[in-house]
Amino acid sequence: MALHQKCWLVLRRGRGFNFSDGKQPLAMARKSLTEMADLLNLQSAAETHLAHYEDFIRSMKPPLCEAW
């Protein structure tokens, strides 16, 4: 079972995170994912998932305009 499937099972049981924590929902999501990975003994999978997510976010940022 993949990490997101196991995390979904934990979330279905009432575990989640608050999206209105000081306007930093991604930080709360990262913390919640890490906590769930600890509970499920999937720390390595969580780190890999977060690394892929960070790479994806970086790839979506527009390149700087060279004319500036």
Write down the overall geometry: globular
Largest sheet: none
User: Level of helix content?
Assistant: 55-70%
C-alpha Rg (nearest Å):
15 Å
Order of helices and strands: HHH
Q: Counting H and I runs of at least 4 residues, what is the number of helices?
A: 3
> Would you identify the regions where 5 or more consecutive residues have pLDDT less than 50?
none
Organism: Escherichia coli
Protein name: Iron-hydroxamate transporter substrate-binding subunit
What does this protein structure show overall?
This is Iron-hydroxamate transporter substrate-binding subunit. This protein has 3 helices and no strands. By secondary structure, it is mainly alpha-helical. The termini are far apart.
Summarize the structure.
This is Iron-hydroxamate transporter substrate-binding subunit. The chain is mainly α.
Write the SSE topology.
Elements: H1 3-12, H2 25-40, H3 43-60
Helix pairs in contact: 1-2, 2-3
Which features characterize this protein?
Iron-hydroxamate transporter substrate-binding subunit; mainly alpha; 68 residues
